[in-house]
Amino acid sequence: MYCTNPVKHRARRQHICTWCGQRISPGEEYWTWASYDAGDCFSNKMHQECRAACDEECRERRDNEYMAYSNERPAEV
Ligand SMILES: [Zn+2]
Questions:
Q1: What's the CA-to-centroid distance between 74 and ligand 1, angstroms?
Q2: Can you tell me the distance from the alpha carbon of 48 to that of 57, in angstroms, rounded to the nearest whole number?
């Protein structure tokens, strides 16, 4: 799987975090990047802390796949 470099944004409208499925409210900072897998393009959007959790899990499992919208949102740092 190929991923673009994550870019940090400040939300101007509401988004849904692809890690935890919770709202990313306007004004909150979040990370976005695209991943490509078998010709499919998926747009990732995550809270700061969710991205950190995702990074960690991907490192542990040595792949970049995760179950979208069904993960625990970590406590804010
Ligand atoms: Zn999240």
A1: 8
A2: 15
